[in-house]
Each structure stands twice: as structure tokens, then as C-alpha cells.
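TASK: fixed-backbone design
INPUT:
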């Protein structure tokens, strides 16, 4: 196919790169000294990075539905991973379709709805070689250095080497499908393309040489986070910890788990580089907004836990950046906490399309254009532990207002909460909930949550 840049289009193309379960400290642009992410860093450092982007839910499906609707879980009705698949959702991709965009998504989707948000959807997460819990015969976990969480209740593959070539991975497949779709695209029509990787979500199995690209001794978490904090809320200490405590792993296993995890991110970065370089060679980036985000973060033995489903910073804050030199600021780092499900409202604004009134999220377009801090406002996150088959109806809600962060369990354990001053306690070690001297700020933030939930 001969490529002729679509310079006459009135609306920009959109490339949305998405990962699952990715921490901010996995990217060099967030200051990580051990990250090996030159491709994503190059775009982030030439664009606008949001340093404190809060997920609407620290678990997959609720976060993904909220991103695509611009609505909180309490409005979408999706609080955990298993929900009514017959539910329809008011996707924010629809205004793009009405404006003439052609859309596609390849890879992990994981939203609970009967109506598809994209015109072309190819759903897959893994390969036939490794499942979430097992290497598939003839491959054996022991032969690939696998770190497998004890089988009860969930035997996640927290680390290991992929039993095949890099081209055999789901990540490489997603990139190939995106390239094929772009090759068939009529460049007189704007495109909205999402490439959605399961990685670095379990199974964390980077192919060679990415399984060893990050040295274990290079990964050094803050010492404060290398143990279980005192005064954790009951929903973590008694419910979540039963399913995801890091105490079931040895220190050696935790170090290996981290090496594999950051190596998996390095592999995702490599695949993003393959796609971005391919698009640049064909002049497909010159009028394209690039946005990168993950649905939530994860624990890697820090705070005494593995997996996600907490409101600690490594889980609730995600990588989030935009690149579009034609209109957006370059080299800007935004410190103000924002809600990352502002992604689609922001893109609608950038494309000159109207945002539906039902949308909860605010547009970040002024900050992208100016590179200046947006107005500070409370940001929220919410979910239940139903994905771990426990406390399905106990609503867990967090609010961050400036440097103060409050979380509450609103239902069965109504008084079970946390309160942290992130300015004085960035690693969330001192829970000030129900502590003398902090009742005023606790009441203020509690009222914000009550008004938020309605």
C-alpha cells in the first residue's frame, strides 16, 4: 500500500496504548532508575506526563468500563470483575464514530457489556503456551524459572520466562494486528486505534532476553514499604491478605518476581517501539495523538502483598501521558492529582467533539496545551473485593484531596478506614484514621465520599 499522509483531515488520529497492572516505577519517565523503557520514555518526555493519575478502580473490569464510559463504578454498576455481561454501557467512543472515525482494538478488552465500544474488536489476552496459572504441556514451569504463588486460593504465575520466541507472544500479535489494520485503513478517514496488552499482568513471563534485562539488585523499593504497615484496615488485614499476602513467598522469590515484572515492562516498551517506529516510517504519526495508560498498578511484595485491589499508591496511581507536538506541550510533568478516566473526555475535546452530559470525568485538554498544572479537585477510586470471591457488596471508596487521602468501607464494616497525609507520609505507614487531632480533616473527606456516592 502507498502511504499518503492525510493532512487534509480536520480531526487528529488517535493511538491509545494500554497495559494492565503497570506501576509508575516501571517507566524511566517517572524517575525509575532500573526501568528499561527507552521507547515510551522518548514519547513521554516529549509530551505531557501526569505524575499522579488515579485509577477509577484498582481492579481490571471496573477500571476499564469506567475509562470507556467516563463514569465511576457506582454509576456503571461494575464494581468487580464478574458482572452482568448483558448490560449495555454508554461508550464514549460513540461520538468519534458519529464524526467519521474508524475504530479498532486489539488484545485485552475485559469489559462487562453486550454492546462493543469499538467497530473492530479482536479479543485475546494470552497465548496457547502459558495460562494465568500454568505452563501448557510440553512446557514445564520448573524449566522456565517460574515463581508460582501457592495454589490456594490462586496460583498466579508471578514470574517466569516465556517458552517461545518474542514473536510468539500476545504482545507481538497485538502489534502485528494493529499494523495490518492500519495498512487497510483509508487515510482520508481519521482512525482511533487501541492496542491493549495484558502485560505486565500475570502471567509475568517475558521472553528472552527481557527476562534478565533488569538486574535484581538494581530494584530497590523504599525501605518503608518492604513490610506490612501497622493499623491496616480490616478489609486488607483480614480479607485481602488471606488471598494475597506476600508472606507466602521467600525473599529470593520476591526479588525474582520483581526482575521478571520489570523485564516484562521492558518487553512491552520494545513492542510499543516496534509499532511507533513502523508508524513513523509511514508518516502515520504526524497528525496522531498518542496516549499511554494502564488500568491500575500492582503490589510486588511491598506493603506485605502481591496483586492489586488496594488504595496504596503503587496500585492506585498509573502511568498516564499524552504526545501530540502539533498542539500539546512538550516536556511537561504535571504534579496535580488527576483522574485517569479523563482520557476519553480529553480526546473528545482535542478532536473538537462534544462530551456527553452523563460523563463524570473532566477534560485535561487545557493542561495538555499549556503544560501548566490544572485546578486541583478531589479524585476518587472505588471497587469491591468480589473479584477475590469475598465481600462482594462491601463498597470500598477512596478520595484524595491535595495531599490527604481517605479510604472507607461503606457497608459491612462502616468504620473501617485509612487516612494518610502524603506530604508527611508518602509511603503510607501512619494511619491517622480516628486519631486525635485529625478528626476535622477526616470529617471533611468523609463528607466528600458521601456526596460522591450520593
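OUTPUT:
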Amino acid at each position: 500500500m502507498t502511504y499518503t499522509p492525510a493532512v487534509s483531515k480536520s480531526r487528529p488520529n488517535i493511538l491509545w496504548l494500554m497495559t494492565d497492572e503497570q506501576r509508575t516505577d516501571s517507566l524511566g519517565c517517572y524517575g525509575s532508575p532500573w526501568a528499561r523503557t527507552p521507547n515510551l520514555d522518548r514519547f513521554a518526555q516529549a509530551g505531557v506526563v501526569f505524575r499522579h493519575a488515579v485509577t477509577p478502580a484498582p481492579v481490571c473490569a471496573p477500571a476499564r468500563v469506567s475509562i470507556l464510559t467516563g463514569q465511576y463504578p457506582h454509576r456503571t454498576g461494575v464494581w468487580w470483575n464478574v458482572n452482568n455481561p448483558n448490560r449495555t454501557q454508554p461508550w464514549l467512543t460513540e461520538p468519534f464514530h458519529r464524526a467519521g472515525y474508524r475504530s479498532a482494538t486489539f488484545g485485552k478488552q475485559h469489559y462487562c457489556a453486550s454492546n462493543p465500544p469499538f467497530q473492530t474488536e479482536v479479543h485475546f489476552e494470552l497465548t496457547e503456551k502459558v495460562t494465568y496459572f500454568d505452563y501448557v504441556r510440553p512446557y514445564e514451569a520448573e524449566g522456565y524459572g517460574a515463581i508460582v504463588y501457592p495454589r490456594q486460593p490462586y496460583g498466579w504465575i508471578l514470574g517466569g520466562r516465556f517458552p517461545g520466541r518474542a514473536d510468539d507472544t500476545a504482545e507481538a500479535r497485538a502489534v502485528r494486528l494493529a499494523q495490518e489494520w492500519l495498512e487497510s485503513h483509508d487515510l482520508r478517514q481519521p482512525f482511533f486505534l487501541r492496542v491493549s496488552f495484558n502485560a505486565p499482568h500475570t502471567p509475568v513471563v517475558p521472553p528472552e532476553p527481557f527476562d534478565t534485562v533488569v538486574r535484581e539488585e538494581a530494584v530497590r523499593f523504599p525501605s518503608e514499604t518492604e513490610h506490612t504497615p501497622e493499623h491496616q484496615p480490616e478489609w486488607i488485614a483480614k480479607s485481602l491478605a488471606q488471598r494475597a499476602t506476600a508472606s507466602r513467598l521467600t525473599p529470593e522469590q520476591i526479588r525474582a518476581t520483581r526482575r521478571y515484572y520489570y523485564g516484562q515492562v521492558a518487553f512491552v516498551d520494545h513492542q510499543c517501539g516496534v509499532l511507533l517506529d513502523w508508524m513513523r516510517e509511514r508518516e502515520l504519526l504526524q497528525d496522531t495523538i498518542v496516549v499511554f495508560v494502564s488500568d491500575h498498578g500492582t503490589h510486588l511484595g511491598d506493603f506485605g502483598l502481591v496483586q492489586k485491589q488496594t488504595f496504596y499508591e503503587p496500585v492506585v496511581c498509573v502511568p498516564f501521558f499524552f504526545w501530540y507536538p502539533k498542539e500539546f506541550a512538550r516536556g511537561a510533568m504535571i504534579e496535580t492529582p488527576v483522574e485517569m478516566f479523563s482520557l476519553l473526555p480529553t480526546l473528545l475535546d482535542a478532536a473538537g467533539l462534544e462530551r456527553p452530559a452523563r460523563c463524570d470525568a473532566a477534560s485535561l485538554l487545557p493542561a495538555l496545551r499549556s503544560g501548566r498544572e490544572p485546578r486541583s479537585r478531589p479524585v476518587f477510586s472505588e471497587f469491591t473485593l468480589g473479584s477475590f470471591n469475598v465481600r462482594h457488596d462491601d463498597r470500598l471508596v477512596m478520595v484524595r484531596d491535595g495531599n490527604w487521602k481517605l479510604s472507607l468501607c461503606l457497608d459491612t464494616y462502616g468504620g473501617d478506614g485509612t487516612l494518610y497525609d502524603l506530604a508527611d507520609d508518602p509511603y503510607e505507614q501512619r494511619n491517622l484514621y480516628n486519631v486525635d487531632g485529625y478528626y476535622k480533616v477526616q470529617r471533611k473527606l468523609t463528607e466528600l465520599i458521601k456526596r460522591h456516592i450520593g
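COMMENT: The chain has a mean pLDDT of 94.
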